Amino acid sequence: MASWCPPPPSCSLLLHLLVVAALLVPSHGSSSNATDTLTASRPLSGDQKLISQRGKFALGFFQPQAEGSGGRWYVGIWYNKIPVQTIVWVANREKPISDPASSSLTISDDGNIVIRQSKSIVWSSNSTNEAFNSTIAVLLDTGNLVVRHKSNSSHVVWQSFDDMTDTWLPGNKLSFNKVTGVSNRIISWKNNGDPAPGMFTVEMDPNGSKQYIILWNSSMVYWDTGNWTGSSFPNMPELSRANTYPNTPYTYQFVDNDQETYFTYNVTDDRILSRHVIGVSGQTQSSVWVEAAQAWVVYFSQPKANCDVYGFCGAYSKCSGSALSSSCSCLKGFSERDPNSWNLGDPTAGCRRNVQLQCSSKGLEKEKQDRFYTINSVKLPDKAQTSIEGTSNQNCQSACLNNCSCTAYSYNGTCSLWYAELLNLQDTIDGSLDNIHIRVAASELPDSRTKKRWIARVAVGGVAALGCAVIALYFLLRRRRRINSMNLAKGSLISFKYNDLQFLTKNFSEILGVGAFGSVFKGVLPDTTIMAVKKLEGLRQGEKQFRAEVSTIGTIQHVNLIQLLGFCSEGTKRLLVYEYMPNGSLDHHLFRSNRAPLSWSTRYQIATGVARGLTYLHEECRDCIIHCDIKPENILLGEYLIPKVADFGLAKLLGRDFSRVLTSMRGTIGYLAPEWISGEAITTKADVFSYGMMLFEIISGKRNNMHTGTSANTFFPMLVVRKLVEGDVQTLIDSELVNDVDLRELERACMVACWCVQDSESSRPTMGEIVQILEGLVNVEMPPVPRYLQVLAEGVKPSEVSNLS
User: Fold this and answer.
1) Are residues 397 and 516 in the same domain?
2) Which of 73, 282, 303, 487 has the maximum number of C-beta atoms within 10 A of its C-beta?
3) In this structure, are residues 717 and 790 in contact, taking their beta carbons and an 8 Å threshold?
4) Is there a domain that residue 486 lies in?
5) Would the pTM count as exceeding 0.90?
């Protein structure tokens, strides 16, 4: 019998941690034509730049890329090697210039760096009074611009790290000088198109507590870290976890002495691009650059929800949403005070009244008196005052109406009045019963005569609605006839209308599951055929391209691939219609405690069936299709638990955007091959890796524990390696299945899984070879230990792991 072994291994990729590897940026040589030094005789102008020694940062003139920022230029520092404009420091943030060609950044006679426009100085570091031509400015690979003596590089007279804008870079200090009372802090941009100081600040607490705080308008503290415990901040558990991880790329330091209090963080691998920013929304975010995703990925933010930022929506506005998505909207009777700032992401200016209040109601006709409307289920605004006079809702309303400054009231047994702008009004999602009554001019609400006219219009509208209902009924019956005529003939695709799918799914009311690229809903045809309808999100193809791609996918037929029955493509609406799988997805059977465990023979047949389906995609289709997202959630089980690979067409449909979508999905990070993360080209071997990680879970019936705090005894892939060497694979299977296991199949499956997750693509088998091994047609040799498992299993020393091999 033949035996399978891998081709000669290439250089293995050693990953610090799976998540850490996602941060690595390919190294590039610095530009030989650029300099990192500014001198009095060599100023910067126009499109000239300073480039740090290893090319990590650049300094020069720039314009914010947000709309509405045209004509304003600034001098700043940004990341030089990434395609997304990411400014980390701005010199003249309050004084933009109009023309970089006629402006310059240079060393002045007194040794400071200055920005000159024509003959006037727009900005200066203003920190030294040195002799002429004695200083130079150097841009470092930390992102720090330092002014120092020519002859003594250690004599720094000024640095941008002491004059932060909105970004806190590794190696810099958030600090408070106890001698001078000066804080080194970060201040948000005014909006996404204007780097002028905004409303939000992050700084060490100047009152002496051992914490840093976030402030609104330099006065109101709305979030703090809690006092340093000696190893972490209580309100930053993410930092606490990172601080205890072995091999973590971050280090943290808190210092409190007689001179200063400061907190700093650093990275142990300078290939990692990391930053901490206070956004225009008042939320702080720590993020890293993921090369494969070509995007900044946020791993920590505070406060969790924008609605918890003090004054985020400004006055007379309401904040709605959750931690994942928040939005501001003006109250009825108000409109945006500064629409341009709202469009640029800064709603803090809030809203203003459309019509001013009449103030006093004395001598006014009732129709012209100010009125109130009610907003239900809200978190009440700040700065309410209690009125003793308001012993009932009516009295409370009168108390507000009789005071010119009163803008709103609330009554819940106690009368609360607001005499200033309403700030921090929020929708609630916890069933709060607090209501607030907003005061507006009478013209903003309809009076009784208007109501009568409205009733008359409703009557006329009712007649018109009846006519529309008759017409709608006609089209409904017509649509029923069209749907009844649909035929799901084998091998043919139906082009559905969106309205038809709404009807067949009862307006998408019964959800079957939620995936990375959209939700799946149950639908039923008139002939009782059940189908699964997937609404795709984030697809950008034109309609012609989408139809062509779907037609190609629709011709793919295999017993272990889900069948595509039809599709919908109308405008931006993209839907796929699949055959319905009554037994759901594999993860429900493996990981749900309320289900009976799958027998070993069933698991082995599922593993083999999935391998056959992937072999068809990789090797037998006209075009090779790489699935790119193999995991239990994408393996569906038919009536007799026959496995079918689902979503195999999405990689083809999503094209080049797929990698960006996938790498931003935290739910599938445990199945990603190293080449996904390091930015290398993706081949079919990426599916092989994901299949191997899934095969470990099929064997154990549990999730692979991918958390960095695991030990070699609990991280299942490492445990499989140990048991293979010890010849004790029987202990790997569920205890309920011990007497049901074919030990030869179990050992074969364990070896296949270990070969699949090798670091090097060339060391992994193809899916076709995997099918042959699982079917017992080819023997397999003992696999080596994948090197990245050595890092993930923190309890294993390198010497111990090498012994296992």
Assistant:
1) no
2) 282
3) no
4) no
5) no
